[in-house]
Design a protein that fits this description.
Number of strands: 5
Keywords: DNA-binding, Phosphoprotein, Transcription, Transcription regulation
InterPro entries: CheY-like_superfamily, NreC/VraR/RcsB-like_REC, Sig_transdc_resp-reg_C-effctor, Sig_transdc_resp-reg_receiver, Tscrpt_reg_LuxR_C, WalR-like
Distance between the termini: 51 Å
Protein name: Response regulator transcription factor
Number of helices: 11
Largest sheet: 5 strands, parallel
Pfam families: GerE, Response_reg
Strand content: 5-15%
CATH superfamily of the largest domain: Response regulator
Radius of gyration: 20 Å
Length: 217
């Protein structure tokens, strides 16, 4: 039984890497490169036109970075898998990509066979983060959370805690709405509920208490 090759869109702002990587993938029978894009904005348009199964996404790009592009792409096209391919090994970048909805994360030094395996896995609905990064993600989630951050506000729902975390990080209601894909009215309601449950006089008091509890970092 033969399988159709996996349609892949390559997104990277460096032309030499983008075209070279696309040429490498095009030489592999299991993969069909449907197109390339140089920015996150171009990527969103290309997904609409070309309907790839998997997007291989760089992180650092002009106009819209790969994390934000991934977040929007996954929201608009949840059936499309995203593999982030970047030079960055920083934990913040890794976890931002995961939170944005990426189902794969590989470093640009990965062997071609590893990249192909990642694309195949993500196309099939799986998740892959490479041996080194997978170990670090497992270690992160194995660490016990700080008691103050998880028990300080037991009356809050998970969503309210998430909103409070973003408020404590200094985000406005509009920014929180964009980050969580909610309406500003819904965010205002969550913030009001948080202030009520915390018996906080205002947003500033809630921020101080949240940061003391380890939120907003």
């Amino acid at each position: 039984m033969t399988h159709e090759p996996i349609g892949v869109l390559v997104v990277d702002d460096h032309p030499v890497f983008r075209e070279g990587f696309a040429a490498l993938l095009a030489s592999i029978d299991e993969v069909r490169v449907v197109g390339t894009a140089a920015t996150g904005v171009e990527a969103l348009g290309a997904v609409e036109r070309l309907a790839p199964q998997v997007v291989v996404m760089d992180v650092q790009m002009p106009e819209m970075d790969g994390i934000e592009a991934t977040r929007r792409l996954v929201a608009e096209h949840p059936h499309v898998g995203v593999v982030v391919l970047t030079m960055s090994e920083e934990d913040g970048t890794v976890f931002d990509a995961v939170r944005a909805g990426a189902r794969g994360y590989l470093l640009k030094g990965a062997e071609p066979a590893e990249v192909v395996r990642a694309i195949s896995t993500v196309a099939a609905g799986g998740v892959v983060f490479g041996a080194v990064l997978a170990g670090r993600i497992a270690e992160f989630f194995a660490r016990a959370p700080e008691p103050s951050a998880t028990t300080a506000f037991p009356t809050l729902t998970a969503r309210e805690r998430e909103v409070l975390d973003l408020v404590a990080a200094g985000l406005s209601n509009a920014q929180i709405a964009a980050r969580l894909f909610l309406s500003q009215k819904t965010v205002r309601n969550h913030v009001h509920a948080v202030l009520t449950k915390l018996q906080a006089a205002d947003r500033a008091e809630a921020i101080v208490r949240a940061r003391d509890a380890g939120l907003g970092r």
